[in-house]
Write a structure and sequence with these properties.
This protein has 466 residues and is α/β, with parallel strands linked by helices. Helices cover 28% and strands 26% of the residues. The chain contains twelve helices and 22 strands.
């Protein structure tokens, strides 16, 4: 004969509350595990999510530590991305799998890199298939102004991108005014003739208004791409005093009169001349119209950008262009750009980091006569075949995890592990670290009194998210 014994367990309300709290704390602890995405400089891993996460613990170990401190915050980020040249748009527009590529670049899905910032050219850039403006013959009233060249591919592709990501920010940059406004009547070089300063201001306002009719909002405008490089095609020489005069006498007042909210950004050239934007911002009549300054890094050091912040801390900074040459050294390009742009530019107060061209074909076309013949795109498009290049992963390591309005937060450097950290609007922390040595390095990630032990492989870039 067997007897069945039952037990009745009575849980007091206080005990139940303790169990509930322990369960909740356990859930929070699990949620705080660190996910990571890795790119190896030898291409054996490419922005690959790792199955194993890192666990935070209160058990401190005697290891070098990257401390991430969200109590100290710096600039708010506008975004990470590329220049969508008209040449890029032409190549993308011809794809039969165009929607898949655009979703991969600009969507919010697990397999997207979530690009949230784009630069476009006002008129042709040197990676257009020919030079053009929106007013090809002398027309002071701008009655014949037309976006017809951009309506062929650039505007249709932009509209599709905006459908995918309606909050994407767009920066516009002119490579050259219409040739009839210039001292040499040529798309390459020359200066803006003073007698056409006002009509050129009207031209830029008309561009912003006409783009808006297409549903494309221009968030910001740089005055001139590379104003100290008149040897490109198209290009324009524009000295600091000329840019200051144009802003304070023409563009600024014309924006005000037409209630244009587009931000005005100066310079848009190399970090070796911080004096150029500083001199313009020192002019009170010009600075009142200016949001900030933009930089490239074909000359100078990225730390020089910080000098502009020190001189004018109330004005914003943007990193707007850096090319990768063909043929690419993937590992070397990845390491240099992560260290100098994703980490260096943001640590020097830049609100954006933009690589140069979004798309190119295998022959490095299209480009203008005299334009760049070796500018590798983030993607190479060969008919319907798409190859993802170094710039795709450089930007992806940030854009995938750092949405618009994230803030850069404090983090220190140990073991020469260069890094940068951000806090997202949703409260997530993102830490981007590069180990470009050939040795695996053991270190701790410290956050809010807890530590997580990590070994970062030699020759790797890692985005940590928790």
């Amino acid at each position: 004969m067997s007897s069945k014994i039952t037990f009745s367990i009575k849980i007091e309300p206080f005990t139940a509350l303790v169990i509930l709290l322990l369960t909740l704390v356990s859930g929070v602890s699990n949620a705080q595990n660190i996910e990571k995405w890795v790119t190896k400089l030898n291409k054996s891993k490419l922005l690959e999510k790792q199955k194993q996460t890192l666990a935070f613990s209160k058990n401190y170990q005697n290891l070098p530590t990257i401390f991430v401190d969200d109590s100290k915050s710096f600039q708010s980020m506008d975004g990470f991305g590329y220049t969508l040249t008209s040449g890029s748009a032409t190549l993308i527009n011809q794809l039969s799998n165009k929607k898949e590529l655009l979703n991969e670049l600009f969507g919010h899905g697990e397999n997207s890199i979530r690009v949230n910032y784009l630069r476009v050219s006002v008129g042709a850039s040197d990676l257009s298939d020919h030079t053009y403006s929106y007013s090809e013959s002398k027309d002071l009233s701008l009655k014949n102004f037309s976006l017809k060249e951009d309506e062929k591919a650039l505007i249709p592709v932009l509209k599709e991108i905006i459908k995918i990501n309606p909050t994407i920010k767009i920066l516009a940059s002119p490579w050259s005014p219409p040739t009839w406004m210039k001292s040499n009547n040529n798309s390459m070089g020359g200066s803006l003739l003073p007698e056409y300063s006002q009509v050129y201001a009207d031209y830029l306002v008309k561009y912003i208004k006409e783009m808006k009719k297409h549903g494309i909002v221009i968030d910001a405008l740089t005055i001139q791409n590379e104003p100290l490089h008149p040897g490109n095609n198209p290009s324009l020489l524009m000295l600091p005093n000329e840019q200051a005069n144009f802003i304070k006498n023409n563009l600024g007042p014309t924006f005000l009169k037409n209630v244009i909210k587009t931000k005005i950004i100066v310079y848009d050239h190399n970090a070796d001349r911080p004096d150029y934007p500083i001199s313009i911002l020192n002019d009170p009549a010009a600075r009142k119209y200016i949001d900030g300054s933009a930089f490239h890094l074909y000359g100078g050091s990225v730390e020089s950008i910080g000098e502009v912040h020190e001189a004018h801390p109330d004005k914003n900074l943007y990193f707007t262009e850096q090319w990768i040459g063909h043929p690419s050294n993937f590992g070397g390009d990845m390491a240099w750009h992560i260290k100098n742009l994703i980490i260096g530019a943001t640590r020097n107060w830049c609100k954006t980091v933009l690589e140069w061209n979004l798309a190119i074909d295998p022959q490095m076309n299209p480009h203008t006569d005299g334009g760049c013949t070796a500018c590798l795109g983030a993607v190479t498009i060969d008919k319907n075949k798409i190859e993802r290049n170094a710039a795709y992963y450089i930007i992806g390591h940030a854009s995938k995890f750092v949405p618009t309005n994230s803030k850069r937060i404090a983090s220190n450097t140990v073991l020469n592990l260069q890094n940068v950290a951000f806090k997202t609007p949703e409260g997530k922390t993102v830490l981007i670290v590069i180990n470009d040595s050939d040795k695996n390095l053991e270190f701790l990630i410290g956050s809010k009194g807890k530590m997580a032990k990590e070994t970062i492989e030699g020759g790797s870039v890692v985005s940590y998210v928790w």
